[in-house]
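User: Sequence recovery, please. Input:
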């Protein structure tokens, strides 16, 4: 990754979108290895490059905002993360319309922040809206629909609505089984998850 970054900086200059892409990739690696401070610095630099290259309301900027917000969530800086996701949501709604999968992704990210602070009443309509968008745009048996159902299950469990949660979890598992197969690790993990993803 460092070599790719070096090549792109030499080839295109240090403020090119390809460099921003390399920075995000490296930042994701740093996140996976819990080097959060280094990851944040790279994400902020990538965001700055993309805002200058594409303008502040470009869908690539929305992706950068989501990445940075999720890093801030992992480091428990939820108040800093929330406005970034709201901004990403606004960009994607304007860029793609209200019923696009990118909007659903933003809604889930925002709901995850609300869930982290036990704001279940605010989170629930966002997850339902994301599910509706994904079902309409991707079909009822898409992996993103299964993820949305899983997220709703977690929310319903947190609010002690176990019967509703069980119905949604059963549907989620059936989709996972259909797409991934019985022995897939993702299916085993999804049944144990306690956080949004």
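Assistant: Recovered sequence (197 residues):
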């Amino acid at each position: 990754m460092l070599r790719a970054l070096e090549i792109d900086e030499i080839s295109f200059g240090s403020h090119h979108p390809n460099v921003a892409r390399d920075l995000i990739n490296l930042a994701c690696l740093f996140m996976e290895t819990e080097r959060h401070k280094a990851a944040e610095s790279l994400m902020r630099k990538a965001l700055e490059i993309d805002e200058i290259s594409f303008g502040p309301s470009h869908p690539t900027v929305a992706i950068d905002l989501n990445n940075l917000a999720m890093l801030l969530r992992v480091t428990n800086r939820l108040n800093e993360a929330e406005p970034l996701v709201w901004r990403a949501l606004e960009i994607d709604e304007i860029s793609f319309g209200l019923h696009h999968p990118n909007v659903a992704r933003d809604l889930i990210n925002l709901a995850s922040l609300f869930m982290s602070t036990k704001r279940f009443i605010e989170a629930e309509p966002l997850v339902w809206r994301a599910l509706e968008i994904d079902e309409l745009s991707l079909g009822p048996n898409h992996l993103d629909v299964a993820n949305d159902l899983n997220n709703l299950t977690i929310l319903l469990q947190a609010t002690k609505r176990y019967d509703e949660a069980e119905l949604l979890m059963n549907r989620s598992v059936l989709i996972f089984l259909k797409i991934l197969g019985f022995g897939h690790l993702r299916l085993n993990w999804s049944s144990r998850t306690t956080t949004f993803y």
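The CA atoms of residues 47 and 64 lie 6 Å apart.
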